[in-house]
UniProtKB/TrEMBL annotation:
<feature type="binding site">
    <location>
        <begin position="154"/>
        <end position="155"/>
    </location>
    <ligand>
        <name>thiamine diphosphate</name>
    </ligand>
</feature>
<keyword id="KW-0784">Thiamine biosynthesis</keyword>
<feature type="domain" description="Transketolase-like pyrimidine-binding">
    <location>
        <begin position="327"/>
        <end position="492"/>
    </location>
</feature>
<dbReference type="InterPro" id="IPR009014">
    <property type="entry name" value="Transketo_C/PFOR_II"/>
</dbReference>
<keyword id="KW-0808">Transferase</keyword>
<keyword id="KW-0479">Metal-binding</keyword>
<feature type="binding site">
    <location>
        <position position="153"/>
    </location>
    <ligand>
        <name>Mg(2+)</name>
    </ligand>
</feature>
<comment type="similarity">
    <text>Belongs to the transketolase family. DXPS subfamily.</text>
</comment>
<dbReference type="Pfam" id="PF13292">
    <property type="entry name" value="DXP_synthase_N"/>
</dbReference>
<keyword id="KW-0786">Thiamine pyrophosphate</keyword>
<dbReference type="GO" id="GO:0005829">
    <property type="term" value="C:cytosol"/>
</dbReference>
<dbReference type="GO" id="GO:0008661">
    <property type="term" value="F:1-deoxy-D-xylulose-5-phosphate synthase activity"/>
</dbReference>
<comment type="function">
    <text>Catalyzes the acyloin condensation reaction between C atoms 2 and 3 of pyruvate and glyceraldehyde 3-phosphate to yield 1-deoxy-D-xylulose-5-phosphate (DXP).</text>
</comment>
<dbReference type="GO" id="GO:0030976">
    <property type="term" value="F:thiamine pyrophosphate binding"/>
</dbReference>
<dbReference type="Pfam" id="PF02780">
    <property type="entry name" value="Transketolase_C"/>
</dbReference>
<dbReference type="GO" id="GO:0016114">
    <property type="term" value="P:terpenoid biosynthetic process"/>
</dbReference>
<feature type="binding site">
    <location>
        <begin position="121"/>
        <end position="123"/>
    </location>
    <ligand>
        <name>thiamine diphosphate</name>
    </ligand>
</feature>
């Protein structure tokens, strides 16, 4: 669906920011109103990230109005905020294809548009990337090029943001950092930084006077760059004494402006113009409301982060009856964790800002003192879990597979090295669908496989997930990885007794004589359907093994396959390079078996966005693709 072209007085005339800049300042509130309404209309029928983009409408309009984009660089942090940006930069007509297979991409990327200056999808990278651009512009003599980093939606809790700030404070640059403070990440922001940003105050009048005085003193020759920095430090000290509050940003010699109302577009445009050409790094602190302009989203921005389809008039979310469907894997995780924690007092839960997304909120509700949301800080989540494990606790640390990439060193250095009993639950493993290449969790099997002391597992269904979770929290299991996908399982009757699974022990699901199929994880269910079809239609006899554990491997199972089959097909919802198929090939070579091994998995490429079904078909991992591999020598 695309909104009717007659709906808007101003928005229909704007294809690119140069059209926006032809408007008067007095027209900006109207364009914001129309842009916000268009976002609401579009996302009501084509779901995506909703509330965050509503909160940045005025900021988006003001930035493109004041700055000469795309020559001036705007670096967005977390693409959740950037739908308005997409609509104003040549993609409004195509926005109905957002997140759809072969449609426009879910997050800003330079691959799609010159207005998208850097890849964003994972949080907290904007300051570092923008600082690099600002330094590069200075090195190339591009004195008229401005660079702006827009960080918010909880991203300031990420360690990389502080690394960027630290470097910005000591590097010669004119970077502007806009802090979009909406008191939220996806769930509510947590920690001292959230409270600090909420309370931080300074005088706009003071900043205006200071700006005018510094310009005058530079013209008079009284002030140079070295004296300016010394004066900033002195004035910061006086301001801190007067306010009885230390400003963390100005303590780093980064000029601070705000906080100001991020929804007053005319004032915001004026301030951006006033500080646009100031020398040195600067922070502009905005207070915004996530979900602004749509009452249900303002009241419950967590639910409306990505609400699915809804009625734009009533705010009623359009849902389907799922009572007779298998549960989401995350629901099985959340309910099983509570069940385990009730019996094991050592269990605690940890998640980096995704308690609702991974269902850790169930433990938070039932045992709030035993569940920790640490903010957008995956590395800290891993090391924090390691610290608790060192002192006798049993952490279940739930991190989306693609975000676990950011904690790789922490897992090696702070968990595996000491063989600490941390259960690393990797939600959203495999191809995740519409969020695309920044969010696909396809590398975890390959990047965790070389690490000593790790147990790496993946359940084929909900019963296996429950039993692996039970097994992982038993004594002396060490660090234990459990990966499972986004979406629903396969069992409506999913509750089962909690029983131990022998570590490193796979399952033979069926016998066969012609081909051995080895799978790991829920994609084994797709393989089972392809096997049944190949046997029925082509008369093949196919054995099916569920490996369960990538590490340690079930060597007895692999010896059986190596001795008895000339053809082996491995199937995994992960990268073919370095994953389970590679482990099987290594085992066969190490033991002098010579079967022909074919590996089905994600190819050596970044896979685009689309539904999981579309992407599995693209990669030859759907039922049809597996069936065609199984029968290819039978035609």
């Amino acid at each position: 669906m695309k909104t009717e072209s007659t709906t808007y007085n101003l928005l229909n005339s704007i294809s690119y920011p140069e059209d926006l800049r032809k408007l008067s300042v007095e027209q900006l509130p109207e364009i914001c109103k129309e842009l916000r309404q268009d976002i609401i209309q579009e996302l009501s029928c084509n779901p995506g990230h909703f509330a965050a983009s509503l909160g940045t409408v005025e900021l988006t309009v003001a930035l493109h109005y004041v700055y000469n984009t795309p020559y001036d660089r705007i670096v967005w942090d977390v693409g959740h905020q950037a739908y308005g940006h997409k609509m104003l930069t040549g993609r409004r007509e195509a926005f109905c294809t957002n997140r759809k297979f072969k449609g426009i991409r879910p997050f800003p990327t330079p691959v799609e548009s010159d207005y998208d200056t850097f890849a964003c999808g994972h949080a907290s990278n904007s300051i570092s990337a923008a600082l690099g651009m600002a330094v590069a512009a200075a090195r190339k003599g591009e004195k008229d090029r401005h660079v702006v980093a827009v960080i918010g939606d909880g991203s300031m809790s990420g360690g990389l943001a502080f690394e960027g700030l630290n470097n910005a404070s000591s590097t010669n640059n004119n970077l502007l950092i806009i802090l979009n403070d909406n008191d939220m990440a996806i769930d509510r922001s947590v920690g001292g930084m959230k409270q600090y940003l909420f309370n931080l105050t300074t005088s706009n009048r003071y900043n205006q006077l200071r700006f005018k005085a510094s310009k005058m003193l530079f013209k008079m020759g009284v002030l140079n760059e070295d004296r300016r920095k010394a004066l900033i430090r002195f004035s910061n000290s006086l301001k801190s004494m007067a306010a009885q509050q230390q400003n963390i940003f100005e303590g780093m010699n980064i000029r601070y402006f705000g906080p100001i109302n991020g929804h007053d577009v005319k004032n915001l445009a004026r301030i951006l113009r006033d500080i646009k050409d100031l020398k040195g790094p600067k922070i502009l602190h905005l207070h915004t409301v996530k979900g602004k302009g749509f009452e249900p989203a303002e009241k419950d921005p967590g639910i409306w982060h990505a609400p699915g389809r809804f009625d734009p008039e009533t705010g009623e979310r359009i849902t389907t009856d799922t009572s007779n469907l298998p549960p989401l894997y995350q629901t099985v995780f959340g309910e099983t964790l509570v069940e385990l924690a009730e019996k094991n007092p050592k269990i605690v839960g940890v998640t980096p800002a995704m308690p609702t997304g991974c269902s850790m909120n169930l433990l938070m509700k039932s045992m709030p003192d035993r569940a920790f949301d640490v903010g957008i800080a995956e590395g800290h989540a891993a090391t924090f879990s390691g610290g608790m494990a060192k002192e006798g606790m049993q952490p279940f640390c739930n991190i989306y597979s693609s975000f676990m990439q950011r904690a790789y060193d922490n897992v090696i250095h702070d968990i595996a090295l000491l063989r600490l009993p941390v259960v690393l639950c990797l939600d959203r493993a495999g191809l995740v669908g519409e969020d695309g290449p920044t969010h696909h969790g396809v590398y975890d099997l390959a990047y965790f496989r070389p690490i000593p002391n790790l147990t790496i597992s993946s359940p084929m269904d909900e019963h296996e997930l429950r039993r692996l979770m039970y097994t992982a929290q038993l004594p002396d299991k060490g660090p234990f990885v459990i990966r499972y996908p986004r979406g629903r399982g396969v069992l409506v009757d999913w509750k089962c007794p909690l029983e131990e699974i022998p570590v490193g022990k796979g399952r033979k699901l069926k016998d066969g004589k012609d081909i051995a199929v080895i799978t790991i994880g829920p994609i084994g269910n797709t393989a089972a359907r392809a096997i049944e079809r190949a046997e029925a239609e082509k008369g093949l006899s196919i054995a099916h093994y569920d490996l369960r554990f990538l590490k340690p491997l079930d060597e007895a199972l692999l010896h059986e396959a190596g001795r008895n089959f000339k053809r082996i097909v491995t199937i995994e919802d992960g990268t073919r390079k370095g994953g389970m198929g590679s482990a099987v090939l290594e085992f066969m070579a190490d033991n002098d078996y010579t079967p022909h091994v074919e590996r089905i998995g994600v190819p050596d490429a970044f896979i685009e966005h689309g539904t999981v079904q579309e992407l599995h078909r693209l990669c030859g991992m759907d039922e049809e693709g597996i069936y065609n591999i199984l029968i290819k020598n039978e035609e």
